[in-house]
Structures are given as C-alpha cells and as structure tokens.
Amino acid sequence: MRWPEVRSLRLRLLLALLLPLAALVAMGVVIDYRTARTLIGASHDRALGSIAIGLAARVETDRDGDLAEHLGATARTVSRLADTDELRWLVLDGQGRRLSGDPRLAPLAQHDPDANPAFGDARLDGRPWRTATYAYDGPEGQATIVVAEALTKREHDARRMLLPTTATNLA
C-alpha cells in the first residue's frame, strides 16, 4: 500500500522541481541571447569601424581623381561582404559635399569628438541599421565617412550562437 503513496510523492516532488528548473532554463536562454547579441554587436561594430577607416585610407591615397569609382570596390573588399549582407556608405568632403555613396546617410554624418569612429543606430527603409561615422583629418584634407550595416546579419549570428549555448546549458 505504501508504493502508490511514495510514487505520488515522487511525482509531486518532480513537478515541484521541474517548474522552477524550467523557469531557470528560460531565464538562462534569455541571458545567453542577450550576451550573444552584445558580443556579436561589439564584433560587428569593430568591423564597421574598420570599413570606415579603410574608406578613409582610400580618400588619402586617391591621386587620379576617380575616388567615387573606387570606394564601392574598396568597401566590398574591406568588409568581405557576402551577397546577402547589406552595407551602405557615404563619403563627404571637408565642406560636407558628397564624394560618393548613399546621400540618405548625410543626416547621420554627426561625429562624436570623443569617439572616432562613433557608432549609432538608425532606421533606413523602415528597418534598423547600425552606423559608424569616422572623421578623417589628414594630409589630403578632411572627410567624413558614414558606413551603415543592416542588422540582419547580427541577428542571424546571435540566433546561431543561441542553439549551441542553450544545448550546453541543458546538458
């Protein structure tokens, strides 16, 4: 007669432990996802800043006056873009005139004197983008470079990190 009572007690104890454990796992997944997004965001920001600096280097070394033609190829080469990645850039001269790139980025050409490159968030075409603005001041003059990346790849990379992290936590 004791066996059914013990079994019922075991079941009650198991249920009592499973609910808090499930809540902890859910919290762990949320924390892991946010951590992944932060780490991936920092990595992508460094790459975005490097693209802006790479475009500035192209401004500095252009001697034949065909800068606009070379900036697109330079952006693709420096960023190692995949076909599905979305990247836009704008290069303004020292007077704020467009040398090359997407003119819709002009309002984002606000650089922070304390951070060069400076990073920010923007909405283009109704979607979120991450921007890097680099203020170039060199022997060839001044320029402002704005590079914008759609957040699609960042979100994809964060989701890709979530599955193995969650599986490890459950193991």
Characterize the structure shown.
The chain is α+β, with helices and mostly antiparallel strands. It is built from 3 helices and 5 strands, in the order ααβββββα. Strands 2-1-5-4-3 form a 5-stranded antiparallel sheet. The mean pLDDT is 81.
Secondary structure elements and pairings:
Layout: H1 2-61, H2 67-79, E1 87-93, E2 98-101, E3 118-124, E4 127-138, E5 141-150, H3 152-170
Antiparallel strand pairs: 1-2, 1-5, 3-4, 4-5
Helix pairs in contact: 1-2, 1-3
What is the share of helical residues?
Answer: 40-55%
CA(first)-CA(last) distance: 37 Å
Shape call: rod-shaped
Helices and strands, in N-to-C order? HHEEEEEH
Task: Supply the helix-strand structural class.
Answer: alpha+beta
Count, helices: 3
Report the β-strand fraction as a percent range. Answer: 15-25%
Low-confidence stretches: none
Strand order within the widest beta sheet: 2-1-5-4-3
Instruction: Supply Rg.
Output: 25 Å
Main sheet characteristics: 5 strands, antiparallel
- Could you tell me the mean pLDDT? 81
- How many strand segments? 5
Notable traits:
single chain, 171 residues, alpha+beta, 5-stranded antiparallel sheet, 3 helices
Write a short abstract of this structure.
The protein has 171 residues and is of the alpha+beta class. 54% of the residues lie in helices and 23% in strands.
